[in-house]
Amino acid sequence: MRTLIVVLSVLVSSPGWCWGVKGHRAVAFEAQGLLTPAAQAEVERLLSLEGARNLAEVSTWADEVKGQGGAEGPMHTVRLPLDHSPYDPNSINCTRHECLVKAIQADLAVLGDRSKPDQDRLTALKYVVHFVAEIHQPLHASADKGRQWVIYRGKPVIMHKVWDTSLLVTQERNPKRLAERLMANAPAVEAARARSNAIDPAAWAEESRDVARDFIFSGPYGIDRREGRRRGEAQPLPDDYYEKAMPIVEERLRLAGLRLATTLNKTLR
User: Residue 86: which region, alpha, beta or left (left: phi > 0; alpha: psi -120 to 50)?
Assistant: First the structure.
């Protein structure tokens, strides 16, 4: 029992859990409410193979099994240079391993092929639900992983964790209510909806990289990429960092939910 508790503690606190459990489930709840009848029926049918009731229940599965597939397992990142260059499918990042963009594309091909075994399609669905959220986290599409130590609200923390979980800590504790609040902002939803009609993982990754480039690592709120490599060198974040960063986090989560819905509706029509 003690071993199990330790393992679960490590998993939940791991920087690899993009957005944390709360963020992933919120994105899944957003998408679930926007599915067409055809997509909803197929999602429910596939999920029932393992007794799951909704997308939120499988939204962190890909993190739970990460590493079990060995070196051939899909990556949960795509490392784009912190400049204005477009995604390059032939980069080392995406040829030596299956990067996040290619992983989404591959899983969508399986999910949309009804000649494939249902279990394979369910596995693909679980990856898609997780990876569409994952690619909207800015530090999962950045060449710099955000491993610098910073001081956030008086405590030292790695920058990656600030964006994974710390910024969301003060939000709704219930992921479903967080999703409802995000979708209740009508002007923001309409603006996001206009950007969510295409299935374009490469463009989603470029957007995330741009946030990392223009906010996390530059400008008045940017941290110095060369500093904070040790805990004792932690860079203090501005007092109003939360107020400036949170609208960006909400936009990324909102876009992720809308795009996941669009992706599933088009793939399972």
Answer: beta
For residue 20, the enclosing domain spans 2-267
CA angle 108–194–53, rounded 5-degree value: 45
User: How many separate domains does the chain show?
Assistant: 1
Residue 171 in 3-state DSSP?
A: coil
- CA gyration radius for the chain? 18
Convert the pLDDT of each residue in 208-234 to its tens digit. 999 999 999 999 999 999 999 899 899
Count CB neighbours of 92 within 10 A.
10
Distance separating alpha carbons of residues 88 and 69, to the nearest angstrom: 25
This prediction's pTM: 0.91
Say how far residue 60 (Cα) sits from the centre of its chain: 10
Give the CATH number of the domain where residue 115 resides: 1.10.575.10
Centroid of chain to Cα 66: 14
How buried is 163 (Cβ within 10 angstroms: 0-12 exposed, 13-18 middle, 19+ buried)?
Answer: buried
